[in-house]
Design a protein that fits this description.
Layout lengths: L2 E4 L2 H9 L12 H12 L5 E5 H11 L4 H7 L4 H11 E4 L15 H9 L4 E3 L3 H4 L3 E2 L2 E4 L1 H11 L1
Parallel strand pairs: 1-2, 1-4, 2-3, 4-6
Antiparallel strand pairs: 5-6
Length: 154
């Protein structure tokens, strides 16, 4: 089973906002789209880990008024969305790194999470992470590269 860290808020926001699901037909239900997007990245056999701070950031994003229509259309609530994310990903609070690695110190938490969860890949749209290309042998890929890797391996 693959274990991945999805630090790409853009990936989750896109899944929720546009209700996309990895190139399949769009869903009117963002919960289902988010699940299928996550399964697509993890080939349906992967396991995702997420830091508590990323869940908090997602909660802030979902609190924006522009998501009211999407949530209403899907008969979902913000609480249901966050609960669903907790089901999709193991929430881990990793100890901090011994020394800073990233240009942006906030991104060190993602690297610490990858180590603590023994991740196989880090998925991120953050240039401060992507510039590293890997950390402790863990590749750092943008969402498109991660998806391409999954498509090539199947």
């Amino acid at each position: 089973m693959s274990r991945y860290i999805n630090n790409s808020m853009k990936f989750w926001k896109r899944s929720l906002k546009e209700s996309v699901s990895c190139g399949k037909q769009p869903h009117p239900n963002p919960l289902q789209a988010c699940t299928e997007s996550s399964e697509c990245v993890g080939e349906g056999t992967g396991c995702s880990s997420i830091a508590s701070r990323l869940l908090a950031e997602l909660a802030e994003v979902l609190a924006r008024p522009k998501f009211d229509v999407i949530l209403s259309r899907s008969n979902s609530s913000r609480e249901q969305m966050l609960a669903h994310m907790r089901m999709l990903a193991e929430v881990i609070d990793a100890p901090p790194l011994a020394k800073p690695v990233c240009r942006d110190p906030d991104d060190d938490a993602v690297l610490a999470l990858a180590l603590a969860s023994q991740a196989d890949v880090i998925i991120s749209g953050d240039d401060d992470l992507l510039v590293l290309s890997s950390f402790e042998g863990i590749p750092i890929l943008n969402p498109a590269m991660a998806l391409q890797q999954v498509m090539n391996s199947s």
